[in-house]
Design a protein that fits this description.
heterotrimer; A alpha/beta; B alpha+beta; C alpha+beta; A: alpha/beta; FAD/NAD(P)-binding domain; D-Amino Acid Oxidase, Chain A, domain 2; eight-stranded mixed beta sheet; about 25% strand; globular; B: alpha+beta; Folate-binding fold; four-stranded antiparallel beta sheet; two-stranded antiparallel ribbon; 2 helices; 6 strands
Chain lengths: ~425, ~90, ~1000
């Protein structure tokens, strides 16, 4: 069912009787060409592009709980392509371009809002690094803008310019960055994939892989065995747990990242602010809540909840850079599980087991990657070769020494 | 979280720095290890949804390294040992 | 006529009259009132507007679960949006304004949305605003953003202070109602360390709202005597106005104590609020229960509230919401409200009870088997329409309607560690169950023990069992049986509100189900049910019950959404505490900081350190003038730079040399005593971690210096290697960064200057103390010091260290002794210029992705020994033929600017990422070279000296031509350092 202005008006006047379920609720078939494990943003996007762009048929998305219940449903909704390294920047810029056309592609309003993202600069060395990054962005065809403190003050006069422990010395802006209504991304991809014939199977937990002679034949699930030519994992956060069922150890640790939202407030923040000397980033949702976050808690966890020290650390950062928010109230805090990889960059690759594919290691940056990740994964699954923007995201980069380490923190996942 | 330090008793985890999977203690033997051994040591990690042996550094305390066994689903800590003692048992040599 | 709705009794102090304003209008209330109770007393029911439809709203509750009566409290920088009128304590001079309305609360233009509610159903955003594509961001979103939100921030810095603290106890009791008080008495009398916390400003919980007796006395008297006993005990800490916001791991509870929110402004030296981390061996949750509403058509008018809230306003605050009150209930508790209000002289229009077998009332009419099917009254309730058991309808004239759908235990904190509550069919409610946070037990109404007797008993038992102590005697109290049969909504109702703040109605839940959003999480996210400032405390249950019915499932099958901290919304300020402004992070100062300040230094933040960046002198108008002078003077004669901030790690033990041999990629085993060596430290992944020097003071004693930035990480790394990889080595390490003040004395006259202060028995001539020598010496007549002949500037140079307390004196002495050489203090800028001129790598080059090879030190990585990182540094990707190599960069036109962060492109060809050849890491104006110079990494850079390239920096709008040169701009042969 296509959403249109006419349809919206008609339904409003006739009691909304005509709206149909956004996706079907099918029982699994015995065999699919491609099974995607994980009904999150990446998995659903993969299904959408496989069906719509790569013309694949006979696809299923298997979801343990309800679709969109992983990190696509619990992130801080920021999109951007402000990366520095060759392996990353083209991919994220591709993703941003897909975001820019996503609503028309999906016929679903995910409220993509290119309100701009600003990374604040607090030292000369940081400025040097941001100039390098901004240049890398522009050389890759993305937009970037270097601002001095006065320019930032004009846009964000309420930041702490006069009493800051680490004075604001400038910022790197990406005007095309912004925010998206995160849940709607999952729903929009799901609805589109479903309309292209993809079976979305919720409440179906994968309990194991059927692997014979080094080849993956399908998956064991709570709804029985489902055969497949290709099985594709897209369960970032739970990658370690799932792939252990195929006896794989990964270059990944699972960590908890907390996020926060305040009560609704009249508009305060036009764009996204990232405080480079503290651990704090913030935007304001269309509903009015300040959506903010900071560092990961720093210890391995699958608990989807964090602890007070990081809560305090994040709010300290917020009060340091934006002391006007002291009397706003923190409404809710939650935790998501991050696949923290060994160089801070993701993996989209085949595994050593034939027919088993892997997409994960997104650290805390997977949301903005959703469309490109789905596109590139679909490409890999359909064509057998990496998408041109994702050639660096291979498992073997750690063996060969081709790490993609934006932060330069090395093989310690909790520092990325 | 609270870590029951073998020498100092219960300490808030905020005093510690987390280093991850305690398999970091199992550094390959430089005489015999293959490139794959080094890759696995450097880049592959135990990541169970359950008990994990992990390294914590008491930076805000006595600067000891601890091997803590902690459940990654519940955060329950079931054992804490000085990493040096664990390493000595492993027979790590110079 | 003021306070026309006052009734007799209650806990307000009628002798203390308080003046306040709401939307500019003056009112009076009494001490002990909340803003909501005082407004109701003044016959003000309309206190707010809903989020989406801007429907007129009054308070639904009398507590922290309030979704409607949200106001902007106070004015100026203290303006506090979204404050619950139902918990805001009245004080004299209180100012409150309604919010989310334009132009006024009574006439809100945005209420037009209510007329278009057919369009604004759940999920309507997702289906529309897409045409034309560009209109979403330009037209629609700005309008939506402007209309959205509730209250406003002042946009000024919060003027109040917040504090943090830590408390410990044997048992934390959360909630001081009947169960909490009994738990506290049981624990306290047994001598346990007790903290009793309650979010309210008065202890007693629900007892304050009821007319029950305890031991045949007024319940509040029992509360008062219990609190008096607890307060007298040294092992009890009472914390009123304290909300336990979260149950975190290992018995750590977050608590927010409101110190000054009930006062006009915080008293001098008092914070507004305090965040406590309470470390509790055990916790007993006695958080009570929340009444649940019933959904019926137009159930959101001002005057319609929970029946228990009406009772609270009457019994505790001595006020009614209106002179004529009706009740709509499905359980006996609703009748209590009718009885209590009638006793106080309020006219009860009727009790509408859904149950055909409802009890009769002795002083009010009961309509059994009846339901309320609609209400009237634009800005406040005037009539309720009742569908009676016989099918007839009847209009009840009433200004207030108390609704009771039963009670839900407050299970919130039991679920903070991902436990899920279990369904209790007898109560038709979720009760604590499954896995509770370790150490937590639950008692009283929070456990489903609703009668006063049951609550008193379960509080006593919970404490006795949890702590292994003797139960105290339980006083006598009512023990009415609880009959709670589910009744969630009135059949046929559609514009019947579930979530009053977010305007989620029964109709929206039905649409959500129709469109496939059937999981309780999808329901929440699609309709925004339960996402308001009350987090669904009064709304979630009804929504999921209706979804269960539509889906043909049981309520426990549908389940709840996740309960998350904080229990009630918490000021961000208190979570930040005092870590703001200049106190955001600690500030580290070097021992000669005051001297530098006197000297007029400009300081710069380097991590937590403040370092002198340059030292301007009279007549200098631009920082470059100062820096150029400092460089030139140092290279010409002598300069002194404070380098105390470098990490200084003492390494001692028989195996110290073996240890450093493992830590550094180059060899240290054979370093002679009295010598310093430059060392490069790799991470295990083969990437450069840090560089610095290590001096061997004795066979078993080294002093390692690290960069300022990496001091902590290098120290941690050393401890890892020592304890985890070399556990049987005899070596100890300790950071002595703060113990020694250290100064670089650089320039051709540096030796001459030092000879004036180094005690004469120490020979520091080139022969006696050559380049890379080190030793323990004394200066100024016996002061112990360490001297290292090392150079970052490329000049003849020393670093001299003295115990910290002598740093200031040493600096002053160097300045006075150096007058004859025109000694110049220099700051970090000149230091940076000179190291770039000399081609030394620093933080910009050691950026965590560069290898020894990239840094031009590939051959330093010893192949004859094992060291951390040596093996993984051999990987092919780190040793490609065209690997990035450190180079020097010089502009062809000396006037042009070299930009750090610029990228290098070939002289000809496209300028894009695919043709990127490298990047500039550091750049500075070199007074020595007379132009800007740079260091950078260039593909195959060591073989491209002399090549002309383009340096491009589109983000700073710059393209210049440069020449690739040796990174050693000054004294490439190293003659000066050896002079």
């Amino acid at each position: 069912m296509r959403y249109s202005g006419f349809k919206v008006i008609k339904e409003a006047l006739t009691g909304h009787k005509g709206w149909k379920p956004a996706w079907r609720d099918p029982e699994p078939r015995p065999h699919y060409d491609i099974i995607i494990i994980g009904g999150g943003g990446h998995g659903l996007a993969t299904a959408h592009y496989l069906a719509k762009v790569y013309g694949q048929k006979n696809i299923a998305v298997i979801e343990k709980g309800w679709i969109g219940g992983g990190n696509v449903g619990r992130n801080t909704t920021i999109i951007r392509s402000n990366y520095m390294l060759d392996g990353n920047e083209p991919f994220y810029e591709f993703s941003l371009k897909l975001w820019e056309g996503l609503e028309q592609d999906l016929n679903y309003n995910a409220m993509i809002s290119q309100r701009g993202i600003m990374n604040l600069i607090h030292s000369d060395a940081q400025r040097d690094a941001f100039i390098r990054r901004g240049n890398a962005m522009m050389l890759n065809g993305a937009d970037a803008e270097l601002l001095d403190a006065a320019q930032i003050r004009k846009e964000y006069p309420f930041l702490n310019f006069d009493d800051a422990r680490f004075p604001i010395k400038g910022g790197l802006a990406q005007r095309r960055g912004g925010t998206v209504r995160h849940d709607a991304v999952a729903w929009g991809f799901a609805r589109s994939a479903d309309s292209h014939g993809v079976d979305i199977i919720q409440n179906c937990e994968v309990t194991g892989f059927r692997i014979e002679n080094g080849k993956c034949l399908g998956i064991e699930t709570s709804k029985g065995f489902i055969g497949a030519n290709k099985v594709a994992s897209a369960v970032a956060g739970s990658s370690g747990r799932l792939m252990a069922k195929a006896n794989m150890r990964l270059p990944i640790e699972s960590h908890v990242l907390q996020a926060f939202v305040s009560e609704g407030l009249k508009p305060v923040l036009p764009g996204v602010i990232t405080f480079g000397a503290g651990h704090f980033y913030v935007s304001q949702s269309d509903k009015g809540g300040l959506v903010f976050g900071g560092d990961i808690d720093g210890y391995n966890s699958y608990a989807q909840r964090g602890n007070l020290p990081v809560v305090e650390d994040v709010c300290e950062g917020g009060m340091a850079i934006m002391p006007i928010i002291g009397r706003a109230r923190l409404l809710r805090m939650w935790g998501g599980i991050m696949d923290m990889s060994m160089d801070g960059s993701p993996i989209i690759d085949e595994t050593h087991i034939e027919g088993l594919y892997f997409n994960g290691g997104w650290c805390y940056g997977g949301f903005k990657a959703t469309p490109a990740s789905g596109y590139a994964y679909a490409h890999l699954l359909a064509k057998g070769t990496p998408h041109e923007t994702a050639t660096a995201y291979r498992f073997n980069r750690f063996e060969t020494g081709h790490m993609i380490d934006e932060k330069g923190m090395g093989n310690q996942p909790n520092l990325h | 979280m609270i870590i029951n330090h073998p020498l100092l008793g219960p300490r808030d985890s905020a005093e510690f720095v987390y280093l991850g999977d305690a398999s970091l203690l199992n550094r390959p033997d430089p005489e015999t290890a293959s490139p794959k051994d080094w890759h696995d040591y450097g880049y592959l990690r135990d990541n169970p949804a359950g008990d994990l042996r992990e390294l914590w550094f008491h930076e805000g305390g006595d600067r000891s390294m601890l091997v803590v066994t902690r459940n990654t689903l519940t955060h329950d800590i079931t054992s804490v040992a000085l990493a040096r003692d664990v390493a000595l048992k492993l027979g790590a040599a110079l | 006529m003021t306070q026309i709705n006052r009734l007799a009794g209650g806990q307000i102090d009628r002798h203390t009259t308080l003046n306040f304003t709401f939307d500019g209008k003056k009112y009076q209330g009494h001490a002990g009132d909340t803003l909501a109770s005082a407004l109701l007393a003044n016959n003000v029911r309309l206190m707010g507007r809903s989020f989406k439809y801007h429907r007129p709203r009054g308070p639904l509750t009398a507590g922290s679960e309030e979704p409607n009566a949200l106001v902007e409290l106070r004015s100026g920088a203290r303006q506090e949006p979204n404050t619950r009128a139902t918990t805001a304590e009245l004080f004299d001079g209180l100012q409150a304004r309604s919010q989310n309305r334009f132009p006024s609360l009574k006439f809100d233009a945005m209420a037009i949305n209510d007329r278009f509610s057919n369009f604004l159903t759940a999920g309507f955003y997702y289906k529309t605003f897409m045409w034309p594509a560009a209109f979403w961001e330009k037209i629609y979103e700005p309008i939506i953003r402007k209309a959205a939100g509730l209250g406003s921030l002042s946009m000024q810095e919060d003027p109040d202070q917040y504090d943090k603290g830590f408390r410990h106890c044997d048992v934390l009791i959360i909630g001081a109602g009947p169960s909490g008080l009994m738990a506290a008495l049981t624990a306290a009398r047994a001598g346990k360390e007790v903290i009793l916390a309650d979010e309210d400003f008065t202890f007693g919980g629900r007892l304050n709202s009821e007319t029950h007796a305890i031991n045949d006395n007024v319940a509040t008297d029992w509360v008062a005597s219990s609190i008096a006993e607890l307060a007298s005990l040294p092992n009890v800490r009472l914390m009123p106005r304290t909300t336990i916001i979260g149950a975190f791991d290992h018995g750590i509870y977050g608590a927010v104590e409101r110190i000054s929110d009930h006062l006009p402004i915080p008293p001098a030296d008092k914070p507004r609020q305090i965040l406590w981390r309470i470390y509790a061996s055990r916790a007993i949750l006695c958080a009570g229960a929340t009444e649940r509403p019933i959904a019926f058509e137009n159930n959101d008018r001002p005057g319609i509230m929970l029946a228990g809230a009406l009772r609270t306003y009457a019994n505790r605050y001595g006020t009614t919401a209106a002179k004529r009150v009706a009740i709509f209930t499905n359980n006996d508790d609703g009748h209590r409200t009718a009885s209590d209000l009638a006793t106080k002289g309020v006219h009860i229009a009727a009790v509408v009870d859904t149950r055909p077998d409802a009890p009769s009332g002795h002083n009010y009419e009961v309509l059994k088997g009846a339901q309320i099917v609609n209400t009237m009254g634009r800005l406040g309730l005037t009539f309720a329409e009742v569908l009676q058991a016989d099918g007839s309808t009847r209009m009840l004239e009433c200004g207030a309607l108390g609704v009771s759908g039963g009670w839900n235990p407050n299970v919130h904190l039991t679920c903070h560690q991902r436990g899920r509550p279990t369904w209790n069919g007898d109560l038709a409610a979720f009760v604590p169950g499954g896995t509770l946070p370790p150490g937590m037990t639950v008692a009283g109404a929070a456990m489903g023990d609703f009668s006063t007797h049951a609550a008193l008993t379960s509080g006593t038992q919970a404490a006795a069992t949890a702590l292994g102590v003797k139960a105290v005697n339980v006083p006598l109290a009512e023990d009415a049986p609880i009959r709670q049969t589910p009744f969630w909504y009135v059949e046929g109702a559609s514009r019947a509100w579930l979530d009053q703040q977010n305007d989620v109605t029964v109709k929206d839940v039905k649409l959500s189900h129709q469109e496939g959003f059937r999981s309780v999480e999808h329901l929440k996210r699609y309709t925004t049910l339960g996402m308001a400032t009350d987090q669904g405390k009064t709304s979630n249950m009804g929504g999921l019950a209706i979804m269960a019915e539509l889906a043909g499932k049981s309520i426990p099958e549908v389940g709840t959404t996740i309960f998350r901290p904080p229990y009630t919304a918490t000021a961000i300020g208190v979570m930040g505490g005092r870590m703001r402004g200049k106190d955001f992070h600690p500030t580290r100062l070097t021992p000669s900081h005051d001297w530098a300040k006197e000297r007029g230094a400009v300081f710069v933040e380097v991590g937590n350190w403040l370092r002198a960046q340059w030292f301007p002198i009279a007549g200098e108008t631009h920082w470059r003038e100062s820096v150029d002078r400092e460089v030139t003077a140092t290279r010409a004669s002598v300069g002194v730079c404070d380098c105390t901030t470098l990490g200084k790690i003492d390494v001692q033990g028989v195996d110290a040399a073996t240890f450093l041999n493992k830590i550094y990629c180059n060899g240290f085993a054979k370093l002679a005593v009295g010598k310093v060596r430059y060392g490069l430290m790799l991470r295990e992944d083969g990437i450069a971690m840090d560089d610095g020097t290590a001096g061997r003071m004795a066979d078993d004693h080294f002093i390692v210096t690290t960069t300022t930035a990496n001091a902590a990480r290098v120290y941690q790394h050393m401890e890892f290697v020592r304890q985890c990889l070399m556990p049987d080595a005899d070596v100890q390490v300790i950071s002595t960064t703060e113990a020694w003040a250290q100064y670089a004395v650089a320039g051709p006259n540096s030796r001459k200057l030092l000879q004036k202060i180094v005690d004469p028995e120490f020979d520091i001539t080139n022969e006696g103390f050559p380049f890379m020598a080190c030793g323990n010496i004394t200066v100024c007549g016996g002061l112990r010091a360490r001297l290292f002949r090392i150079s970052f500037s490329g000049e003849l140079a020393f670093e001299i260290a003295v115990p910290s307390r002598y740093g200031d004196a040493l600096m002053r002495r160097l300045m006075s002794e150096g007058e004859e050489f025109d000694v110049t203090p220099y700051g970090t800028e000149a230091l940076g210029v000179m190291r770039i001129e000399k081609g030394h790598a620093a933080g910009n080059e050691l950026n965590g992705t560069t290898t020894a090879l990239n840094l031009g030190m590939g051959r330093m990585v010893s192949k004859v020994k094992d060291s951390i990182g040596s093996k993984l540094s051999e990987r092919a990707g780190l040793n490609e033929p065209d690997a990035l190599m450190q180079v020097g960069i010089k502009p062809l036109d000396a006037e042009q600017k070299v930009t750090a962060g610029g990228h290098l492109m070939n002289e000809d060809g496209p300028v894009d990422a695919a043709h990127d050849q490298g990047y500039v890491t550091s750049a500075a104006f070199s007074p020595t070279m007379g132009s800007m110079i740079g260091l950078g990494f260039l593909k195959d850079g060591s073989n491209r000296t002399g090549e002309k390239m383009r340096l491009v920096s589109p983000v700073t709008d710059l393209t210049i031509e440069v020449e690739i040169v040796s990174a050693h701009f000054v004294d490439p042969e190293g003659e000066r350092v050896r002079a």
